[in-house]
Design goal:
Layout: H1 3-15, H2 19-30, H3 55-62
């Protein structure tokens, strides 16, 4: 994929984002220009995980666990 195609793809993806997600992308793109992270990070604006979900539920989506299971 050449640069022009990549820019068109990104522009198309940006056009389909919700305003909240677009704000996150903008903040991400601004981040290399600042020396310190901003206090109002967009990650805190995302909804919390649903109550009652477990690591097993996560693994159904994420794949297999490679760490140590603590019981």
């Amino acid at each position: 994929m050449n640069t022009t195609q990549l820019r068109e793809k990104v522009a198309s993806q940006l056009n389909n984002l919700s305003p909240e997600r677009l704000a996150l992308v903008s903040e991400f793109l601004d981040s290399p220009e600042t020396s310190e992270p901003t206090q109002s990070s967009g990650w805190q604006k995302l909804p919390p995980l649903k109550p009652g979900k477990t690591a097993t539920d996560l693994l159904k989506v994420a794949g297999t666990w490679q760490g140590v299971y603590g019981g």
